[in-house]
Amino acid sequence: MQKSDFADQFFEAVLTLKTPEECYKFFGDACTPKEIQAIAQRFVVAKMLKDNRVYNEIVEQTGASTATISRVNRSINEGYELVFKRLDKNK
After folding, report:
1. Distances from the Cα of 69 to the Cαs of 65, 75, 85, in angstroms?
2. Is 72 exposed, middle or buried (0-12, 13-18, 19+ CB in 10 A)?
């Protein structure tokens, strides 16, 4: 993703959020329900791919298309890995 002033401002705002409830409020204002659902679905797909789940299982459990799963699979890089490691540490 290319950096921009708009994205910088947005990410700075996101970094001020502290609870899931705050995230629901902010993202509820900033995004449509469909946009939030799409981002959340891609995150769950990425977690399932990380756990070596097969496409058929991911489709069945998330409702994501195989095209979406394939796109997510190609995009699992530093960002997802960083978050997964931090989530694992918090368990």
Report:
1. 6, 10, 21
2. buried
User: What local confidence, expressed as pLDDT, does residue 26 receive?
Assistant: 98
CA distance 53 to 44: 11
Q: Which two tokens stand for residue 64?
A: 């994501």
What angle, rounded to 10 degrees, do the helices at 20-30 and 33-50 form?
Answer: 130
User: What domains appear along the chain, each with residue ranges and CATH number?
Assistant: 1-30 (no CATH), 32-91 (1.10.1270.10)
Whole-model pTM above 0.70?
Answer: yes
9: its two tokens: 């401002």
- For residue range 41-78, list pLDDT tens digits in order: 999 999 999 999 999 999 999 999 999 999 999 988 88
Nearest in space to 87 (alpha carbons), one of 43, 28, 26, 23: 43
Q: Cα separation of 9 and 80, whole Å?
A: 21
